[in-house]
């Protein structure tokens, strides 16, 4: 049923056509925008509650007045409806649903699976490489702490494969006793695989089983009079027990998440305290998008349903509030992950203390967020006054250029709104086709690429465009906007003050070339400086990555006929790229697999 306007939608007539089966319903407005997604044990009763009640909350009434169309999906069970609802909310982001906003991927510990000597490594992103992934961890710090722990315990290598393959002597990690030197054959493959197996067991939470095996091996070594081996195992056991005692949390189960929610001033903070293998991995805070009049129980229910859609589910989830459909949610998670999941809201003893800890953390984080937002609002209002704008800006963009003597030039664009940095809108532009070191040309190219889409009617346009630089850089921005026919954007240059001291920056207004000196106490300048510094950081990090990638790429990779194996053989034979460059054709031919024709191509490529 698709009426021409919201007023034409006959909710009562639509309800009369519905089934009493469980399912999911979706409300759309006249423009086709999704307003709300909900699940129901009986579609007829649940959807009917929106149109058959004489009175309803203001928030619900506002939504109902906009409904122009309703779509339903019938499911076999209510648990299936709950799962589908969570998936649709996370994917489609309806206006009136509580939405978990978490654009960061979680880090993992990666154990490679394709090498004779596997490695442990930090991993973030797609998990499509052969091997095993342990996690997710709440932060990069937690992963690095765990990797540091693994180095002390099991000495499994953590170096990159390219570094590992080209070693001719042990590295520093071997010297300080954190690696067994597999790169140069100082440990046999069988012994190394045993260390890897123990590391896997430890990451799976079977630390006591590892200790038992090590004790058994120590006793065997002692019985066979191999006292040096027995002493090494004794020290490893002592280290394992000591670290386990330091990191183990009394009262924590193997896998448990403790989740609390606090709401103030229309902002919700959900704090999650993570426990894995009986060890606390720290906390992480989330700030879901709220509709009006949301309660902590509703936020927790939606958070749990959305958060665990694409993440491993612990066996125990402790919540700070009783939530609707608690048993149904536990059933859905159990079906999804393949093991029993308990959701608890009434706890005592150690678990009650963990919950209090999560609640205190949520309150502290929320208080800080509110204070930060109020400060940010003051800064935006002051910027409006300083620049003489008709209203407070809603979107600020800032561009910066970074390079090293013209090499690997990168331009950055960062975006700030009234709630702070909008990192999902950040962009980098790799600059090419200009004279190296020409910052004006680089700025012109980056701005053209950014605002061409705006001119074509795509993407958001900023209210204020900050340019890191003076009148010359501002002129480039004005030229680009003029060429593309874009008006109504306030362009401001941020020029460094005398002695490049912070707080003495000059704001250059485009068009009039008027200069403003807000001074070090100006909230507007604090905002501008923070945005400018973020653009600078983002540009530098992009430039460094591009430069390192270019320098890591060997000239040998561009020579036809030189694959990974021959490249490794050449580098080993001559001790690195410098040695290969110094070698003649006859010397290159001494390397296995290199004939005269290939040797000449290599020589020509290195001496072009």
UniProtKB/TrEMBL annotation:
| Annotated localization | Cytoplasm
Query: Domain UvrC family homology region profile spans what residues?
Result: 258-481
Q: Which domain of life is it from?
A: Bacteria
Q: Which InterPro entries match?
A: GIY-YIG_endonuc, GIY-YIG_endonuc_sf, GIY-YIG_UvrC_Cho, Hlx-hairpin-Hlx_DNA-bd_motif, RuvA_2-like, UVR_dom, UVR_dom_sf, UvrABC_protein_C
Fetch the SMART domains from UniProt: GIYc, HhH1
Q: Which GO terms label this protein's molecular function in UniProt?
A: hydrolase activity
UVR domain: residues covered: 208-243
Q: Where do the GIY-YIG domain residues begin and end? A: 20-98
Q: What is its main location?
A: cytoplasm
The record's keywords, sorted A to Z, are: Cytoplasm, DNA damage, DNA excision, DNA repair, Excision nuclease, Hydrolase, SOS response
Task: Supply the CDD domains for this chain.
Answer: GIY-YIG_UvrC_Cho
Subunit description? Interacts with UvrB in an incision complex.
Q: What does this protein do?
A: The UvrABC repair system catalyzes the recognition and processing of DNA lesions. UvrC both incises the 5' and 3' sides of the lesion. The N-terminal half is responsible for the 3' incision and the C-terminal half is responsible for the 5' incision.
The record's section on HAMAP family has: UvrC
PANTHER family to which the protein is assigned, alphabetical: UVRABC SYSTEM PROTEIN C, UVRC/OXIDOREDUCTASE
Q: Which family does it belong to?
A: Belongs to the UvrC family.
Name of the protein in question: UvrABC system protein C
